[in-house]
Every structure is written in C-alpha cells, then in structure tokens.
Specification:
Glutaredoxin, alpha+beta, about 100 residues, 4-stranded mixed β-sheet
Length: about 100
C-alpha cells in the first residue's frame, strides 16, 4: 500500500483518508457517512481507508494516535485533519471549503 498511498495523495483532487481500525466502534459509524458523502461529492473528492493495524508505517508517518482520524490531502499535503467521529453535515461543509 505504501507506494500506492504516496501516489494517491499527490492528486490535485482532494483525497480524504480515513485512518481506522477493525475493532473501533466509532470507525464503523464513520464509514456509512463517508459512503454517503462520496455519492454526493462524486468526482470532486476521493476517499480511501487505511487500517492503522495493517499499515502501521503510514499511521506512524502521520502520527495517528487515535481512530477514527480523518485527514484531507491536496497535492500531497495535509490541509485538514480531525480525530473522532465527524458528523455528515460538519464533514461536508469542511470538505466543500477545500473543493
């Protein structure tokens, strides 16, 4: 995943990365919110999921200390980041400000 991850986040289209874990309850609640947003913002944003247990090198690189953590990348740079469950309306508003 490491090589693909680096090329994906270099995109000019904003990339929302969902750092999550299988055992995380709030992560399971965040997932359907992201699915809805992808549908509503189709073509304007990419969303990828990174399991922190399976991709520890990437999680350490971005100092992920809690899950879920959402990070928005644009041209390879983190432009926004937040840990914890983010509600749909709040997240949509944040994402639209970067489109």
């Amino acid at each position: 995943m490491k090589g693909n991850f680096n090329s994906i986040i270099q995109s000019q289209v904003p990339v929302l990365v969902d750092f999550h874990a299988e055992w995380c309850g709030p992560c399971k609640m965040q997932s359907p919110i992201l699915v809805e947003l992808v549908g509503e913002l189709e073509g304007k944003i990419k969303v990828i999921k990174i399991d922190v247990d399976k991709n520890q090198e990437i999680a350490n690189r971005f100092q992920i200390r809690g899950v879920p953590t959402l990070a928005l990348f644009k041209n390879g740079q983190v432009v926004w980041r937040q840990s914890g469950l983010v509600q749909k309306n709040q997240l949509k508003s944040i994402l639209q400000s970067y489109l």
